[in-house]
Amino acid sequence: MKLLLVEDEKQLSEALTQILIKNNYSVDAVFNGEDGLEYALTDIYDAIILDIMLPKLNGLKILNFLRKEGISTPVILLTAKGSIEDKITGLDCGADDYLPKPFAPPELLARLRAITRRKGEVINDNILEFGDIKLNLSSYNLEVNQISISLTLKEFEILKYFIQRPNNIVSKDDLITKLWGFDSEVEHNNIEVYISFLRKKLTYAESKVQITTIRRVGYKLEA
Ligand code: CA
Questions:
Q1: Range of the domain at 206
Q2: What pTM did the predictor assign?
Q3: How far apart, in Å, are the Cα atoms of 213 and each of 16, 62, 131, 188, 216?
Q4: Tens digits of per-residue pLDDT, 64-101?
Q5: Inter-axis angle of helices 33-40 and 59-68, to 10 degrees?
Q6: Of 101, 189, 221, 223, whose CA is between 20 and 30 Å from 179?
Q7: For ligand 1, a single-atom ion, which residues have Cβ within 5 Å?
Q8: CA neighbor of 53 nearest in space, from 2, 117, 6
Q9: Domain containing 85 — which CATH number?
């Protein structure tokens, strides 16, 4: 399991990294908010341990940005300030858990197990299939042959929407109202960006499935 640790206190970061590695996690440690955001946006992590007070960009802003981008990686917030307001703000921003400093490492390990497990429990171990692709509803991964590619939450939702309507034409407005809601500010060009990311992932996996553009109408998933 791959973790991102965003913590500016070097000693704490090193201590945690060692403990996590000992517990069979692989860890990328970064020491400021900007790096934290950049790494987290790659969406390759199974969980993120995120300090709130960070140089350059604070943890809550990072978390807010990630959730807006549809990145649903479980996040544990760390903070020296154990105040109720911080806790509420953190959970409102989309944190999965919250750990006030100082904490005992076994507690962090237990919470990591809980949030990574929770992700798989939300939806059962279902697989949606279309052509040569499999969409794993518990890991949000796209599986083609032996290749497994992680999707962002919105990429996952879009692909799931397509697979549930095989060979139907889906308009950009359908996607916006069904996946974002009527009053969202998502525009057609945002959808185009998501579609292009999905296409890149399908191409990368050498899938025969394609998202075809039907001019002026929308898209169609074809095997
Ligand atoms: Ca800090």
A1: 122-222
A2: 0.55
A3: 48, 34, 18, 13, 9
A4: 999 888 888 899 999 876 666 777 777 777 888 888 88
A5: 20
A6: 223
A7: 8, 51, 53
A8: 6
A9: 3.40.50.2300
Q: Tell me how far the alpha carbon of residue 36 lies from the centroid of ligand 1, in angstroms.
A: 12
Q: Give me ligand 1 centre to Cα 123, in Å.
A: 34
The mean pLDDT of 135-154, rounded to a whole number, is 88
- Same domain for 89 and 130, yes or no, is no
Q: What is the pLDDT of residues 18-34, one digit of tens each?
A: 999 999 898 999 999 99
Q: Quick one: tokens of 181?
A: 């809601």
In the three-class reduction of DSSP (H, G, I as helix; E, B as strand; rest coil), residue 159 is classed as: helix
- Judgement on whether residues 150 and 91 belong to the same structural domain of the protein: no
- Residue 75 vs residues 10, 15, 50, 62, 184: alpha-carbon distances, Å: 20, 19, 7, 11, 25
One-letter amino acid of 147: I
Taking Cα atoms as reference points, which of 45, 60, 48 lies closest to residue 6?
48
